[in-house]
């Protein structure tokens, strides 16, 4: 009996992909959910797991071939691989963990790195909750992995004893890689058996010849780049198409090696530390999230022609309206009426009039978005994340407040999915909650605009020749001058100001 391996759903409006790499060859034993091959679409890479345990019988679509959704990739002959047990009826957890299997007592089960999310190929082991020899229950959390954006918990695939941990805290692991070995039942001594496999796994990356993605090789050839000019982010440093595109966006010439320490400071770039201070320092490795934040913010500065324009808004009308209706609003909708819904609606209103602020550059094209996916910057204990409120321009005040509240809780708990942080077209950052009076926000690539909110502070203002006290807020719009002209940026900010100072304009679409 054989099982077919087919092309999975590739994403909205994506109908075909290129077979980039096969990790197995005909005749190899495979376990259920073990990664067989990697497909590459225009935007992302997709890993294809084995639907069942057995032996890879035939590869139908070789590397470099283009395949459509649901096309046949390979076949697996069942029954030849190591016992894997029958799949449980219970579905896999939303964290992306592999399907759980039941196994006879005393059998060893590999604990694998789960699918990490679209285009995410590796993670760092941040915390082990169990030690070798500890008894674990089925679905009990064994460890936590950290990717560029989210944390992923790995549950135990079965009850038993944790044998050997193959990936220690701080190590980088690939999607589909092996984390540990679990021995079912009460025979912890069996857990030491896979030790030779660990040595083989450690040797595999160094001895493997990395095959770069076909579309990446084609694009490098067209642009006159060599693999040494491009930093690969795929498995084992494999260069993907998006890596080449990112390299081209950074400039035609790669920086000289001597300039690298200045671009990304490391321990070697520090000045000598006086002996009396050496014992009073603490060195902590940057988390993957913090490294990603640093890289993306620096890329934004290097790539975009970033400029900031400022204005101020009298918050009297919004505060009066909010004070008048907040109790009734919360009673009816079950959520508090905050300031973010007013700012979100005001920005959506302004983006319709100045669409270039809601656009992005793609090569030599400008892509205008006829929708608003609003990014809301959220500070968390581990760093800044930007969850996205999709189709915010079609939502009412209550829907916006409810969605922002949900995303805020998920962000603080580290439970945001990759999908919830992708696809934003414009961003709002509220530094006012921390007491900021004035700042220049940095763009969130590839977006062309970000609005910075600040603290509300009573200030003397002149109205009709009289000095009055008004609750004022400074607004800052950072924008990409390659797409947005100064007139458009100023107009956008003025429209936001007008909508907030007279919220009735939002209702009348003025």
TrEMBL record:
Transmembrane segments: none annotated. SUPFAM superfamilies: CoA-dependent acyltransferases, Peripheral subunit-binding domain of 2-oxo acid dehydrogenase complex, Single hybrid motif. Pathway: Amino-acid degradation; L-lysine degradation via saccharopine pathway; glutaryl-CoA from L-lysine: step 6/6. Residues 2-77, 108-183 form the Lipoyl-binding domain. Keywords: Acyltransferase, Lipoyl, Transferase, Tricarboxylic acid cycle. Its cofactor is (R)-lipoate. Pfam families: 2-oxoacid_dh (PF00198), Biotin_lipoyl (PF00364), E3_binding (PF02817). Residues 191-205, 250-275 have a biased composition (Low complexity). PROSITE patterns: BIOTINYL_LIPOYL, PSBD. It is an enzyme of class 2 (transferase). Its EC number is 2.3.1.61. It catalyses: N(6)-[(R)-dihydrolipoyl]-L-lysyl-[protein] + succinyl-CoA = N(6)-[(R)-S(8)-succinyldihydrolipoyl]-L-lysyl-[protein] + CoA. The keyword Transferase applies. InterPro entries: 2-oxoacid_dehydrogenase, 2-oxoacid_DH_actylTfrase, Biotin_lipoyl, CAT-like_dom_sf, E3-bd_dom_sf, PSBD, Single_hybrid_motif, SucB. E2 component of the 2-oxoglutarate dehydrogenase (OGDH) complex which catalyzes the second step in the conversion of 2-oxoglutarate to succinyl-CoA and CO(2). This is Dihydrolipoyllysine-residue succinyltransferase component of 2-oxoglutarate dehydrogenase complex. The lineage of its organism: Bacteria, Pseudomonadati, Pseudomonadota, Alphaproteobacteria, Rhodobacterales.
